[in-house]
Amino acid sequence: xxxxxxxxxxxxxxxxxxTDLSLxxxxxxxxxxxxxxxxxxxxxxxxxxxxxxAHWASTGHVxxxxxxxxxxxxxxxxxxxxxxLAAGGTAEDYLAGAGVMARLGNALGWSHYARGWHxxxxxxxxxxxxxxxLSLGLDIEQTAHAISLAIPAAGxxxxxxxTPGKPLQVGFAAEAGLRAAFLARAGARSDLRxxxxxxxxxxxxxxxxxxxxxxxxxxxxxxxxxCCYAMQRPIGAMRSIRxxxxxxxxxxxxxxxxxxxxxxxxxxxxxxxxxxxxxLEYALAxxxxxxxxxxxxxxxxxxxxxxxxxxxxxxxxxxxxxxEDNLLAGDVTIxxxxxxGSCAEAxxxxxxxxxxxxxxxxxxxxxxxxxGIDVPDLTASLTWxxxxxxxxxxxxxxxRETEPA
Length: 405
What we know:
By secondary structure, this protein is mainly alpha-helical. The protein has helices at 3-13, 18-37, 42-47, 52-61, 76-87, 91-114, 119-122, 124-135, 140-150, 165-185, 194-201, 232-241, 273-276, 280-289, 300-303, 306-312, 361-370, 375-381, 384-394; strands spanning 250-256, 315-318, 332-338, 343-348. Strands 2-1-3-4 form a 4-stranded mixed beta sheet, with helices on one face.
């Protein structure tokens, strides 16, 4: 049996538990909230001439505030939720697509991510094809062909991190999946062995796919700060000792954390808000300077603050190797040395919002409020049907002008 067919059969046979469905609802609320929080972002106008699903997914990822599947290092919901909403699907369809994305991402493994692939997009395009196929009512064979038809678009590079290219790659992945499902419904076919060959070509850790376990094995991490997930733990650690520190007294900041935990943090001297979202050094600066590192902390002006620049220059980083290979490997230890020689130190293993330390209802509500959303209206009444209407109302797609001949 080909991997495409095995995944299609698993998706069609999925019977979600109440826990699965609760996770799907949280993912819907979280994704809609972070998408609407970006509705005034400059990228929204740029992407409004794209397809609906690409427009929504790009907008949902531009603030880098959406959830993350830790084991596969993929942003599952920002690909799958817009796909399901655009195709008129349900929570069950979301869980099928999300489950396939988690499993493909796990098969690709950390080595795939460590080589610089944007795993959200490599795993996201074929997974979006599954979510769209079920939403559109395709059968198992059609779904398998949709997965194969999405493979040519299954790519993305981490070098785009800190630029508009990152959220655009996510939008392209969602669009590819929906397009593949429409093509399969219209009768398009591919060789189903394409997926097996593709996994080998991109250096997957495992060629076989594990279809056991819950709908989304390992669950999803929720971000409480609007920046790369690799920054959540350092921010949390620094915030725990912030009250002990005066900015003028700080002489040096030392960070010790496994190398893999900061792999996406490629900007060491950020100058823009987007670059600041992928900077370990700026994570520590905003944790010290801002009462709460929120949207205002990741603007160009905030990153360019003289105080922030001064703190960034005080940071030195030790990156020991570890046998673990994920963004929460080991723990992070932060030592802040004062001019008088004294130190404040903090060690943190799990940031709030991680799968093993899920957000409390109040933390989740605070996040939704920070996105400019009325909490009761969103959490109590949001459904997969009216979620699509809400996005269409708030993020309309412009009609494309006909290109001249």
